[in-house]
Amino acid sequence: MSGYDESDAFEAAIPLSQRAMSARPAPYLDDLNPAQRAAVLATDGPVLMLAGAGTGKTKALTSRIVHLLMTGKARPNEILAVTFTNKAAREMKERVGRMLGAAVEGMPWMGTFHSISVRILRRHAELVGLKSNFTILDTDDQLRLLKQLIVAANMDEKRWPARQLAGLIDHWKNRAWTPAKVPSSEAAGFNNRGTELYDRYQERLRSLNACDFGDLLLHCVTIFQTYPDILEQYQRWLRYIMVDEYQDTNVAQYLWLRLLAQGHRNICCVGDDDQSIYGWRGAEVGNILRFEKDFPGAEVIRLEQNYRSTEHILAAASGVIEANSGRLGKTLWTEARGGEKVRLIGHWDGEEEARWIGDEIEALQRGTRQLAPVSLNDQAILVRASHQMRAFEDRFLTIGLPYRVIGGPRFYERLEIRDAMAYFRLAVSPDDDLAFERVVNTPKRGLGDKAQQEIQRMARSSGVSLLEGARELLAKGGIGGKGAGQLRAFVEGIDRWHAAVLNTRPELADAVIEPMLPDTAPNRDHSHVRLAETILEESGYTSMWQNDKTPEAPGRLENLKELVKALEQFDGLQGFLEHVSLIMDNDSQDATEKVSIMTLHAAKGLEFPVVFLPGWEDGLFPSQRSMDESGLKGLEEERRLAYVGITRAETLCTISFAANRRVYGQWQSQLPSRFIDELPDRHVDVLTPPGLYGGGYGAAGMGAGFGGGSRIEERATRADVYNSPGWKRLQDRSTTRPIAQPRESRSSVIDLNAVARFTEGDRVFHQKFGYGTVAGIEGDKLDVDFEKAGVKKVVAGFVTPATEAGDVPF
DNA sequence: AGTGTGATGGTTTTT
DNA sequence: CCATCACACT
């Protein structure tokens, strides 16, 4: 089945006009720095582009593509440019298009690993036991399937949750292990039945003519490895290969790339080992670290000039990342001078931290300081774990500060969207059992577990799909009175919709659906849009939500409307289904400006003038779990996360931590993150809430200053803080109010020099834990045996010496 | 078939 | 503490 006709997708590519090539020598080279230019010009042979944060990586990459096209080294259809996210792919496309001054109509091989794999797989599906119109399972379908298998295997689905199995299988697929290839050392997982279930799962997928995300890559690799002639074709066609975010590739992706690159060996991998933060989902930093071994003679080009951040921000980031071992090594530098140092501030607890940051954001927005007003759109809060967002959301809601959370549930992951999609899937391929299962009783049709089991049984015994099973069941009268009518209506509905789909797109009658080119001309008559509406109407799905009086119902209807609207850009329902998971972005661009709240992971690749990095506390960041599970490797990945966080900031970066945080409902004393100790002194401003008691500092033991790592403690004496330029500047600028307005004042001020004052046996007082005795001293941290709370490790700055009278010193 | 209750466990996430 | 989910109840 090697009958790939070279003339279809490839010919669709429109070669660049000769005019464009001869216009000017190479304007795209003009505004590149030497390293970038080298990366652009090193077209042949393997190249590793080590591009630090903010060094113009995308610019170099896109210029490289433009260069290849303009010099005629490659036609648009001969360049394979792979990214991880659709967003990145889209951006690359747009930028290349802009540079060329024309739409990049024909770069069929620019996309994500997954979308390109789908394209390839559709061609050769039969080689791995699929039909070319296979469906791609989402996580939900996948879990349901696995659960069925677990139950079928007579296992307790509680002790052996589908989620875990899904994770295991995903892990294996990331390593490009088919069931047969899973090493025996790994097979012990999941009650010793992991591989067995994996095998059954694959079997089931095949019978469903379906694939999960991991399969897209894995099947391609299998095909390449098994059919050298097919691999050769691709190797021949794809003369130039470029990979973005190479540090994030997993083994399967690595194999995929290596196989394809073995032809011309013109592979350019762009990445930054310091920004590898996806080890936990299978990314192998090793891929980038051993690039030169994999591709002997590789040219390594370092992009180190940063155009994004101030020198202080860069220095702070560098200071942190230097603590990692085994780096390829790279030092960011900038021509920019000056700017504010990275600010560091400690808070009493998480709420206080959120309050302070909220105030700070508002102050920056108003421009109360000499700084020009900063739009909310230009400010972001980057957290380690999404549950940290809550404190900010709560706070911002109460003060009416508009915010947006990035990276919430995706549009197409929402319940109503997936339900609607299941209906569309049934209309396109009525035998889609997973879709059938999903919506057969949504809206409620009186078809509960019992009825569904009957359908399942019938279908299985006749070896047909659920829809056909249901039909048979109806014919035989094997179903009770009330459900029968409803089921009949459902079945007839599917028939009707399917007929309508065929009518709209007659070519669908063929078993083989040609892969769509991304930019196919939209279907002008919009008949499929009307059909979609009809389906949702007739199925009763729309009215289900109309009759729903829960507060989220209107939003869901809104989303459905959006879904239907999105259809307009497509040629037909099936094209939509194919691409929906690829294009649907929830980038609802709102006109109102908003602060962004997101995880550090979600922030990779983004930049903001003002960045807040809260929650730098050991256990939270670095995450305890990472360290427990992956030891030093985990810690180093956390550190890279810190590096990513800091380097998101352009002009102002504020790191903060809280002394107390509620973790699972329990108040916990927190220690400042070890990463704080790694921030280089010279580039950090230790901020101090001005405090109501600047004067009473010593006596009260709760004056200005705050706890930090030991090094901070040494440098940030009160005098240092108050005399620091940053502090003075802030004071001078504080026309309306000081930098922080401590509302729960006394608790918000923490002493940094406190440790020196304590010795073992001292009686101390802690705001949240009450009275206790110092049991041990470790750097700036004290072990305190609290009367009520037991032994806790606390930062010295957060406790005060208890007076003889035992009174609270305020 | 739909609602209520107790047990459970609880980073990071794209495709 | 709080969300989620399986199970049991009506």
UniProtKB/TrEMBL annotation:
GO biological processes: recombinational repair
InterPro entries for this protein: DExx_box_DNA_helicase_dom_sf (IPR013986), DNA_helicase_UvrD-like_C (IPR014017), DNA_helicase_UvrD/REP (IPR000212), P-loop_NTPase (IPR027417), UvrD-like_ATP-bd (IPR014016)
One Pfam family hit: UvrD_C
Cellular component annotations (GO), alphabetically ordered: cytosol; DNA helicase complex
Gene3D superfamilies linked: 1.10.10.160, P-loop containing nucleotide triphosphate hydrolases, PCRA, domain 4
CDD domains hit by this protein: DEXQc_UvrD, SF1_C_UvrD
Keywords tagged on the record: ATP-binding, DNA-binding, Helicase, Hydrolase, Isomerase, Nucleotide-binding
Annotated family: Belongs to the helicase family. UvrD subfamily.
Its biological purpose: Has both ATPase and helicase activities. Unwinds DNA duplexes with 3' to 5' polarity with respect to the bound strand and initiates unwinding most effectively when a single-stranded region is present. Involved in the post-incision events of nucleotide excision repair and methyl-directed mismatch repair.
This protein's name: DNA 3'-5' helicase
Protein's organism: Gemmobacter lanyuensis
